[in-house]
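Hi Q.,

Before the meeting this afternoon, I wanted you to have the ribulose-5-phosphate prediction in hand. No need to reply - just skim if you have a minute. The sequence and ligand are here:
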Amino acid sequence: MSEQDPVTLMKQYVGKAAADRVTSGMIVGLGTGSTTAYAIQYIGERLKTGDLKDIKGIPTSFQSTVLAKKYGIPLTTLDEVDRIDIAIDGADEVDPQKNLIKGGGAAHTREKIVDSLAEVFIVVVDSSKLVDQLGSTFLLPVEVMPLAMTPVMKALEKLGGKPTLRMGVKKAGPVVTDQGNLVIDVKFDAIDNPADLEKEINNIPGVLENGLFVGVADIILVGEVVNQEAKVREIS
Ligand code: 5RP
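Predicted structure with the ligand bound:
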């Protein structure tokens, strides 16, 4: 195996495997995060060599917009298309039913819109993201309008969560989403019923969207290292 850090290698492998599923003429949802960034890069490389033609991307964040432009992927919007053929996106946790927690990059609201509309939604993760139960390793992100921050936190506590406001790194104050909102990360001891919790949280006034993606993913591509060799395993 190459000298490269194994996690980076796994991300590159799944990113490439997902980019290989894109065919000419497709409208492609472009997710957010460090793993999807490799998929965007490889899609751009395939366009450059002529292996891929006439595709259009729908970005899910400022990050994916910038990367798509950097790698020469033409962009479009939901107003201009009648379908999304495929979406490629990362995740923070994946359970055995292919339910997800997303939002580590604070982009889950736009990601859920784009990923849910796709005919095929491919999730790209390294093996550390697979869990038996959602909420085991990652806090659940909730995007909230700034004026509703305090009442939403109280409502999340009533649902059994321990909420904290996500703070910026190399920026004083809270993380502000691409939509100008805040993110509350919530610790739940166990998420027994992700489908019910997803609806309950979204029903709190002031909440835009939470990071539970239930029944949205079609295919999970998992990058793993087996016998010191990086491989991609498909869960479908
Ligand atoms: C952004 C996301 C990302 O897809 C998720 O955080 C995974 O990112 P990475 O591939 O960097 O681990 O949901 O909101």
